[in-house]
Amino acid sequence: MQTYDFIIVGSGSAGSVLADKLSASGRFSVLLLEAGGTDRRFYVQMPLGYGKTFFDPAVNWNYKAEPDPGLAGNADHWPRGKLLGGSSSINAMVWIRGAREDFDAWAAAGNPGWGYDDLLPVFKALEDNQAGADAWRGVGGPLHVTDCSDAVHPLTKRYLAAGQQAGLPLNPDFNGAAQEGVGVYQISTKNGRRMSAARAFLRPAMKRKNVRVATNALATRVLFEGRRAVGVEYLQNGETKTARAGREVILSGGSVNSPQLLQLSGVGPSALLKGLGIPVVHANENVGAHLQDHVGINYTFKGRLPTLNQTLRPWWGKLLVGMQYILTRSGPLSLSMNNAGGFFRTDPAATRPNMQLYFQAFSTVIPKSGERPILTPDPWPGFSIGLSNCRPSSRGEIMIRTSNPRDYPRISANAYSTEADVAEMLDAVKFVRKIASMPDMAEIIEEEVLPGPSISSDADLIQDFRKRSGTVYHPVSTCRMGPDPSRAVVDPRLKVHGIEGLRVIDASIFPDNITGNTNAASIMTGWKGAELVLEDQK
Ligand SMILES: Cc1cc2nc3c(=O)[nH]c(=O)nc-3n(C[C@H](O)[C@H](O)[C@H](O)COP(=O)(O)OP(=O)(O)OC[C@H]3O[C@@H](n4cnc5c(N)ncnc54)[C@H](O)[C@@H]3O)c2cc1C
Fold first, then answer.
1. Which residues of the sequence carry a binding annotation for FAD (predicted)?
2. Which of 71, 188, 338, 401 has its CB surrounded by the most CB atoms within 10 Å?
3. pLDDT tens digit string along 380-415?
4. In CATH, what is the architecture of 149-184+292-394+416-468?
5. pLDDT single digits (tens) 325-379
């Protein structure tokens, strides 16, 4: 059995950074196990290829959540990246860090070092922001962030104007002084190609002799000697293999897989493990519990002006944008589907935003099987204003169903299971209609297609968003960080409570969800986690 200093499970947003930072000095050997394969695929590299990878089993775990009473009984599709770069290789690339108050609350909950002022230097150091450096933005870091202000669809201007007419400020940088307002989203790309964590961190690290990346390698169990993690068992090409960790095993499998692997390895809720015949190494009821996620919905309109639908749908339009992309790495295919967005408060008395907006200059009301039909949108000029909650109070869980590592765990999201979450979403969808009713939007709207004008009472609006909402892919907190072993899975240094030589470093450790998309904070967690690991090495 080969021994490495560190074994990292998962090459996603956090795992890619860890592989880079732990190997950079040349002092330590690193084995990175990734269940998926390469990220060198056209639809992964091309930003709008998102529509293709959304259901593609070659790069996506394609989880299905349990039928959710809060979502009118729907079983939601849960994409997660299964390839180098993990979910950062299939995500929508919106670059949002989260709010100062989010991280300050993490620190106040007993996690020193995780406040905004502690983390701002990390956020700045990891990025190379095209908009230039200032008090909040960084330049010269490994991850390029693109400023799309000049490239977005012309309709975006109308959305920004209508947002201001509805009372929101124009915000030039959601990662800057304040989050509230409408604005153009910064995205994680460079020269028209996706800037995943693999591209920014892992690919450069893979050139080092002390880094070994095993792809198509599914970690099936953490190996223990007593309460010390000493290695990992994994499946590769039908063979069961093991590797030994001289220093630490680090789980970076993400919010679905990290709790799953802990549970499979005997760290988790004792009744669950015993019921499945898994020997309990360390009982902890929090493993897989406290799941938090953002849920969202689109309001879709038929416009009087051409939208991206007219560009992307016809064969000649596809040819044109395809040529534009291949020759100049620009145009709609080089952008996120979310050109713009924003943050707002449903309660004017609240001190900060609780809702996020997305503006998409195209529409995909007509479904297409096995694909999110971004590249073949509706035949009429459609566009959407999307919306998701930021800090919902509903909680779910992710628990294994069997002791077989290849079986997917049970994902119970429990969306809209609190009155507060329903009430704020009701206020929020009304605000989306307010934006649509403002002069700059109203002028160009032919009709509201979804949900449509017949849906207007509170009861109908609630029924509609229960039926049509879904995850916006930001699950967190299933291995949450906290000082109290009876309430958390990892301590503030990301060490698994009650176990030696084992950490979890990915989005699953967020004590609470952040106000915004979770990729930047996951990458930050990888960076900060690597610093903690390195500090602890003699
Ligand atoms: C469709 C989609 C759209 C999104 N859009 C955005 C967006 O626009 N902006 C944004 O900020 N965030 C977005 N997100 C969320 C963001 O990408 C994730 O929060 C972030 O990537 C999570 O990082 P992670 O390191 O926790 O896990 P991941 O990046 O998911 O990495 C986990 C890795 O571990 C591997 N793995 C898991 N289990 C095992 C195992 N047992 N053995 C070996 N390998 C294993 C996986 O294959 C994967 O590569 C989106 C996510 C999705 C899925």
1. 91-94
2. 188
3. 999 999 999 999 999 999 999 999 999 999 999 999
4. 2-Layer Sandwich (3.30)
5. 999 999 999 999 999 999 999 999 999 999 999 999 999 998 777 778 888 899 9
Question: CATH top-level class for 1-44+77-145+194-291+400-406+475-537?
Answer: alpha beta
Percent of the chain's residues with pLDDT above 70 = 100
In sequence order, which residues have a C-beta less than 8 Å from that of residue 289 and are 6 or more positions away? 269, 395, 397, 478
- Residue 179: partners with Cβ closer than 8 Å, 6 or more residues away: 99, 171, 343, 352, 353, 515, 516
User: What length is written for the chain?
Assistant: 538
Binding site members for FAD: 91-94
CB atoms within 10 A of CB 117: 10
Residue 110: both structure tokens together: 């007993």
The separation between CA 537 and the C-alpha centre of its own chain, rounded to angstroms, equals 30
Pocket, ligand 1, Cβ cutoff 6 A: 9-15, 33-36, 79-82, 86-88, 90-94, 96, 217-219, 252-255, 257, 261, 473-474, 506-507, 517-520, 522
Answer yes or no: are the C-beta atoms of 261 and 279 closer than 8 Å.
Answer: no
